[in-house]
């Protein structure tokens, strides 16, 4: 197992834990910039979770002796690319099949990746239309989680996703040791 890809996956999971801790601190703070901090840490946790998922796909590709660079773990089609490359080599990877099942339907992994993708689709959120009198230079900020009353549930959901992803990574690493 290449330590580069294992390290990258662990690093993303570790950064996610750090940002979750900071999110909890921000949520309980009374600072003037509390909501900006909450929004920032919400997104950074999602980015690190998605990064850990992508790094883990690269780790799997490396373990099965595929070029992880050809899988492009940050693309939306990374899993299908990995499945195709494994199939072309005649390799059956139960880890990848389980991940594919987790992406199909209403699972924690599918929800995590939808939340991550929502960070990039700000235009689909409710946005106040600028008035005709508004300055052309006025900046309109779109928030990923505009209802801060739900913040404890959001934090709990992020923690559940981190725990589930960490457990998945560890379980699959154990099974791939034999490969």
What does this structure look like?
By secondary structure, the protein is mostly helical. The chain has one domain. It is 65% helix and 0% strand. The protein is built from seven helices and no strands. Helix 2 crosses helix 6 (108-118) and helix 4 (78-88) runs antiparallel to helix 5 (94-103). It is elongated, with a radius of gyration of 19 Å.
What can be said about this structure in brief?
It contains 7 helices and no strands. By secondary structure, the protein is an all-alpha fold. The chain is elongated.
List the helices and strands and how they pair.
Layout: H1 3-27, H2 34-63, H3 68-71, H4 78-88, H5 94-103, H6 108-118, H7 151-176
Helix pairs in contact: 1-2, 1-7, 2-6, 2-7, 4-5
Task: Using the alpha-carbon principal axes, give the shape.
Answer: elongated
Instruction: Tally the helices.
Output: 7
The N- to C-terminal Cα distance equals: 9 Å
Low-confidence parts, pLDDT < 50 over ≥5 residues?
A: 124-129, 133-142
Q: How would you spell out the order of helices and strands?
A: HHHHHHH
The beta-strand count equals 0
Strand content: under 5%
Mean pLDDT: 84
Main sheet record: none
């Amino acid at each position: 197992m290449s330590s580069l890809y294992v390290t990258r996956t662990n690093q993303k999971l570790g950064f996610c834990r750090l940002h979750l801790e900071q999110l909890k601190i921000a949520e309980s703070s009374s600072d003037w910039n509390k909501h900006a901090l909450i929004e920032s840490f919400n997104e950074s946790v999602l980015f690190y979770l998605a990064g850990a998922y992508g790094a883990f796909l690269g780790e799997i590709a490396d373990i099965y002796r595929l070029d992880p660079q050809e899988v492009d773990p940050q693309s939306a089609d990374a899993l299908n690319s990995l499945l195709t490359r494994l199939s072309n080599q005649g390799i059956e990877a139960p880890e990848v099949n389980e991940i594919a099942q987790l992406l199909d339907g209403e699972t924690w992994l599918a929800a995590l990746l939808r939340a991550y993708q929502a960070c990039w689709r700000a235009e689909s959120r409710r946005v106040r239309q600028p008035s005709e009198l508004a300055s052309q230079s006025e900046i309109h900020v779109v928030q990923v989680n505009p209802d801060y009353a739900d913040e404890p549930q959001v934090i709990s959901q992020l923690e559940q996703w981190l725990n589930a992803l960490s457990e998945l990574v560890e379980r699959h690493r154990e099974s791939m040791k034999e490969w």
